[in-house]
Amino acid sequence: METTASQRRVTMEEIVALAKRRGFVFQSSEIYGGINGFWDYGPLGAVLKRNVKDAWWRDTVELRDDVVAFDSSIVMHPSVWKASGHVDAFHDVMVDCRVCKHRFRLDHLKDREKCPDCGAKSSFTEPRNFNLMMKTSIGPMEDTAALAYLRPETAQGIFVNFKNVYQSARKRPPFGIAQIGKSFRNEITPGNFTFRVREFEQAELEYFVPDDGHDMEAFQAWVERRKAWYASYGVRADRLRFYELTPAERPHYARAGVDVEYLFPWGWGELESIAHRGTYDLDAHMALSGKDLRYFDEATKTHTTPLLIESSAGMDRTTLTMLIDAYELERSVDPNGKSTERVVLRFHPAIAPVQVAVFALARNRADLVERARTIERELRPVMRTQYDEGNIGQLYRRQDEIGTPFCVTVDHATLEDGAVTVRARDDMRQARVPVAGIAGYLLERLTQ
Ligand code: GAP
Question: Which of the four, 110, 192, 363, 438, has the lowest number of CB atoms within 10 Å?
Fold first, then answer.
């Protein structure tokens, strides 16, 4: 049998349809018509996203002795956002069309003279700033005294706790603090599925280094580490780039910046930003709070403010990337010239929501069903499994479409020879494997 991968890129419509059909992602509040910029992760999507987050956490926190874990609250003192600059400067510039009343981001308008929606000429209002922070109120009174914000990034929770953490964890720069958590931004134009949304998760690493001339090395080391991370989960190299920001593209205080970008079906989109932020963040909080957030540097015997290297990755965007990058439409032609097509998600086994599916070939044979269920139960503690039964062609098709690396089938012969058929997702090869050694056989292939 000859197989060829289609050269055609998957469309977003196909991804959205597959995500819904197989239970990766649903529109939030769908039965009420949905709500723009919010999405829910279904049974498979929730596991995929958790696996992506676990993969980041393992590499960024667990495998290092110089990074500690953190989990700050979503709502913080409003002064945090005053100091960080978000209250005054975290906004998009908007204009309204006076005729159709539609609102546009100024930087998205190609022709400022003519409304792209209704075609009216010179109909725009003066540009106005629109703050992207989501507001809420604390306590029973909805007055300005109770005003608070849902955090637009997790990072500030780390900065304001810098001293608490280094003192309690007995760390001194260079060391990092990492957290994964929800952030909220009142995006004017959410879109491209889960790419630009109003509620999302960030995985942020704040790495504090002494001001001793080695800070650029630390920055570069994180860039390399993140490169290796994406590569180790199989993201195609020709669809990933690390774009170095020019001084004009960086905030004034940043000494270096690299955006990690993926080539989505609509073009390049940012997955992560890695930045050398100098002392900007801690300085800002020290200035407004009046609290000393410096540490005592034993080398120089002075109280100093560390420099900050930040890596901030969007977990929804990374999960979407894994889904799109794994997608392949494959055409096979058998020796008789008959051609068939299959959709296959080639997830890395470590992030695949289901790693092994176990089937009973015939639904009406209690002995096969029992045997297959027993095998699945025994595998479950050591890998992510799923039991199913019925038409083998349909079962394979479904598992290919959700990216399951291996399928194990209990058939009539199993009861006699004590072996099962293991079918690999990627090359569709089949092997007969004794049930006694099945866990070891699969684990070896899942962790290769
Ligand atoms: N603390 C730095 C920071 O928040 P950012 O570039 O504004 O930097 C980091 O955000 C990452 O968070 C982005 O690269 C992106 O992956 C994710 N992100 C930001 N806004 C998002 C949105 N509206 N929807 C989904 N992900 C978003």
Answer: 110
Cα(29) to centroid(ligand 1), Å: 23
Unique residue bearing structure tokens 């608490």: 164
Q: Do both 360 and 297 map to the same domain?
A: no
User: How many distinct structural domains can be found in the chain?
Assistant: 2
pLDDT, tens digit (0-9, with 9 covering 90-100), for 153-178 = 999 999 999 999 999 999 999 999 99
Domain membership of residue 329 (yes or no) is no
272 C-beta closer than 6 A to ligand 1: yes
CB of 204 shorter than 6 A to ligand 1:
yes
- What is the mean predicted confidence (pLDDT) over 315-323? 98
196 lines ligand 1 (CB under 6 A): yes
Task: Output the residue whose Cα is nearest ligand 1's atom 26.
Answer: 314
Containing domain of residue 372, as a range?
354-446
Query: What's the mean pLDDT in 192-216?
Result: 98
- CATH number for the domain spanning 14: value is 3.30.930.10
Q: Say yes or no: CB of residue 316 within 6 Å of ligand 1.
A: yes
261 shares a domain with 169: yes
Which residue, judged by its Cα, is nearest atom 20 of ligand 1?
Answer: 196
Compute the distance from residue 306 Cα to the ligand 1 centre, in Å. 24
Specify the long-range contacts of residues 41-49, CB closer than 8 Å, at least 24 apart: 43/353, 44/353, 44/354, 44/402, 45/19, 45/319, 45/353, 47/353, 47/354, 47/384, 48/24, 48/319, 48/322, 48/323, 48/347, 48/351, 48/352, 48/353, 49/201, 49/315, 49/316, 49/319
Most informative mutation of 205, 222, 270 for ligand 1 (most atoms within 8 A of CB): 270
Give this prediction's pTM: 0.95
> Strand pairing of 175-184 and 67-69?
parallel
Q: How confident is the model at residue 307 (pLDDT cuts 50, 70, 90)?
A: very high
**Residue 253 and residue 201 share a domain:** yes
Rg (alpha carbons) of the chain, rounded to whole number: 26
Q: Is residue 104 part of a domain?
A: no
CA of 313 to the centre of ligand 1 (A): 7
State pLDDT tens for residues 8-52: 889 999 999 999 999 999 999 999 999 999 999 999 999 999 999
Q: Closest ligand 1 atom, CA of 154?
A: 1
